[in-house]
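User: Hi! I have a protein structure encoded as tokens and I'd like to know what sequence might fold into it. I'm fairly new to this, so please keep things simple.
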């Protein structure tokens, strides 16, 4: 009986480790002081309704990566990174889904502005 109980506890511990390891990793917004500002653009393509324009600030990092910071009404809601030498293979998008400054990597090409950013 004690062996069965001990094996059940061991299985639960192992299961607990696998659940923790599958948690979404969070990232912080890159430090703009360490980046060189390249350009700023406005786009309605990024925003999903009401004709609002998102601001996209493009930066160059010392390692050659291009970092784009997306904002709407002064709120940074996403950033992306890519390498000019391998745009398709290195593009990564990170979004702040809750407004707490923690960004998580977003998979897939279709995405929407998080609800906390939208003024409507």
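Assistant: Happy to help. Inverse folding works backwards from shape to sequence: for each of the 120 positions I chose a residue that suits the local structure. Here it is:
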């Amino acid at each position: 009986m004690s062996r069965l109980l001990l094996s059940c506890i061991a299985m639960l511990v192992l299961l607990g480790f696998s659940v923790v390891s599958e948690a979404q990793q969070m990232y912080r917004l890159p430090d703009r002081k360490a980046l060189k500002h390249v350009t700023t653009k406005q786009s309605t393509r990024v925003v999903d309704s009401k004709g609002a324009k998102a601001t996209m600030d493009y930066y160059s990092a010392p390692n050659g990566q291009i970092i784009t910071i997306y904002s709407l009404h002064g709120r940074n809601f996403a950033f992306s990174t890519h390498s000019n030498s391998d745009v398709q293979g290195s593009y990564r998008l990170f979004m702040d889904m809750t407004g707490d400054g923690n960004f998580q990597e977003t998979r897939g090409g279709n995405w929407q502005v998080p609800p906390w950013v939208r003024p409507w």
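A useful reference point when you look it over: Helices lie at 2-21, 87-90. Feel free to ask if any position seems puzzling.
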